[in-house]
Amino acid sequence: MIRLIFFLLLLFFSACHRLTPRPFDSTAYRSASPEVLHEVSGLLREDVASIKALKALARVRISRGVKSENFRQVIVFRRPDKLRIDFLERSSNALLSLLSVHDGVMKVVDLSNKVAYIGDPSLENIRELMLLPLSLDEVMLLFCGRFDAELHGELVEARLLETQANDGVMLMQYVYASNVQVDVRFSLLEAGDGKKIPRIFGLDVRDNAINASIMSAEFIGERGVSDRLALPKKLQLSMPAEEIVIAVEYEDLVVNPDIAQSDADLFDVTIPPGMKVSYL
Questions:
Q1: From CA 109, how far away is CA 4, in angstroms rounded?
Q2: Which of 42, 146, 165, 269 could form a cystine bridge with 141, CB 3.0-4.6 A?
Q3: How far apart are CA 180 and CA 206, in angstroms?
């Protein structure tokens, strides 16, 4: 397992690109007409579809009330259903624990306490083990500063709201049958060929039944992958009810790497002998 960790760490050699898109005059997009709503929704869906896989190395800080933990993470995923996160001691890169999802099975191996957990990647288990009120594919997209409205449940209404500030930022609001509302803040950039590219700055997941925020996410900075694709440098995630704040800062990443079928052992984790196993 230790050899596999160093193999993962050696994957991060890609150079950063400088983005060329320029700010786009979005004045005409503030009418929120059905035609504009349809076009903007399509641009956001295209942007999500551009993310297929990720390998990333990050520094992470999790705060809960007055307590906090600091560690590093190696994140590898292939959408929509394969994920691995290694939790490493920040200074020595010693493996503390890992989480994997493969063939509909979620495993968490806690080496410090010699216990493993096995269950399905349900919303309940993801919230319990990853602290996030999202589905598996939504979690992967969150790592990339994206949101797919069609993944969050039965969509009742989508609204493109007018913005008062003249800063090019727009707000897409999604309302779901579950009484959950997701607000996505974004702007549009324009590539050299005239193609419009969305950039999401943050989102807020709200429970309208109690008028409270479930989770908010801020996507800070920009790390260019190509002239049309960028990921945030930092993620700031907040769950107010639980007093949880998660800060993720990328040290390196590779977007859409070639993760072959032969790499399946990255996700299909074998639980070491001698560990206590609990089923979720």
A1: 15
A2: 146
A3: 6
φ/ψ bin of 131: left (φ > 0), alpha (ψ from -120 to 50), beta (otherwise): left
- What beta strand segments (E) does the chain contain? 22-23, 53-64, 67-78, 82-88, 95-102, 105-110, 115-119, 155-161, 170-176, 180-190, 196-207, 212-220, 223-224, 230-231, 234-239, 244-255, 276-279
Dig out the tokens for 192 from the structure.
């050299």
Burial class from Cβ neighbours inside 10 Å (0-12, 13-18, 19+) for residue 118 reads middle
Helix ranges restricted to H, 22-117: 34-49
What pTM, to 2 d.p., does this model score? 0.87
Say which residues have a Cβ less than 8 Å from residue 211's Cβ, sequence separation at least 6: none
d(CA 273, CA 277): 10
- pLDDT tens digits for range 110-167: 999 999 999 999 999 999 999 999 999 999 999 999 999 999 999 999 998 865 555 6
Q: What is the pLDDT of residues 236-274, one digit of tens each?
A: 999 999 999 999 999 999 999 887 655 667 899 999 999
Q: Rounded distance, CA 280 to CA 270, Å?
A: 17
